[in-house]
Amino acid sequence: MRGGIPICFPQFGNCGSLEQHGFARNKLWTIDNNPPPLPPNDSHGKSFVDLLLKPSEEDLKGWPHSFEFRLRISLAADGVLTLISRIRNINGRPFSFSFAYHTYLSVSDISEVRIEGLETLDYLDNLCQRERFTEQGDAITFESEVDRVYLSSSHLIAVLDHEKKRTFVIRKEGLPDVVVWNPWDKKSKAMADFGDEEYKQMLCVDGAAIEKPITLKPGEEWTGRLELSVVPSSFCSEYLDH
């Protein structure tokens, strides 16, 4: 799966006993015709679909926890895309999970892209056995492979595409971490489902909950929200301040 926003649940990456990034992204979901209500501003003036995932018997063999995963995907007239995940424990005992919206962004040239909003944060570097470092740059730029989990980030991240003069603005709630990934040339050539040169036009920036897994007691529900918009870069500073 190389594009879109794969849903990583109940595991991100290979840090656990399940398949890479968990099973949710490989499942068929059903339309949820009668979802529990969300606040009015999450539906007013937007086109949306509500999806529902429940574990199959096969899923329960590998991860023996009963849950209901509701996902609302909405699109506003101004192009703002919002994903709201609600995961409820309908099990008789607590369970824990990690989560990410594995968001693939299309960029003009990865060497002309920078990320703002992650400065001074600690991150786990997956290229160094998840060793912890502190970000030293004023912004994140790309000259080689990057595979990091930035920890305890703010609710707002900006991805500036210099050549297209546009900025992706990522707002998030319930998702303290941010994954930043670009495979660069060597890893691109090693991946069967990834073009040798495709790394130049893509970047993953994921709202996530990884370092401290989410734990739900029976009956509890967790909500993770991601909002993705695009603004002209000339307006970006003013927009972010707003």
Could you give a quick summary of the protein structure above?
8% of the residues lie in helices and 43% in strands.
Give the helices and strands, then pairings.
Layout: E1 7-8, E2 30-31, E3 46-53, H1 57-62, E4 67-76, E5 81-89, E6 95-101, E7 104-106, E8 113-116, E9 122-125, E10 131-134, E11 146-150, E12 156-161, E13 166-173, E14 177-182, H2 184-190, E15 202-216, E16 221-232, H3 236-241
Antiparallel strand pairs: 1-6, 2-3, 3-4, 4-5, 5-16, 6-15, 7-15, 8-12, 9-10, 9-11, 11-14, 12-13, 13-16, 14-15
Overview of the molecule:
It is a single chain. By secondary structure, the protein is mainly beta. 8% of the residues lie in helices and 43% in strands. The protein is built from three helices and 16 strands. Strands 1, 6, 7, 9, 10, 11, 14 and 15 form an eight-stranded antiparallel sheet that branches. The chain has an eight-stranded antiparallel sheet with strand order 2-3-4-5-16-13-12-8. The longest helix has 7 residues, at 184-190. The relative contact order is 0.19. The model has no long low-confidence stretch (mean pLDDT 92). Keywords: Isomerase. It comes from Vitis rotundifolia. GO terms for molecular function: carbohydrate binding; glucose-6-phosphate 1-epimerase activity. Pfam families: Aldose_epim.
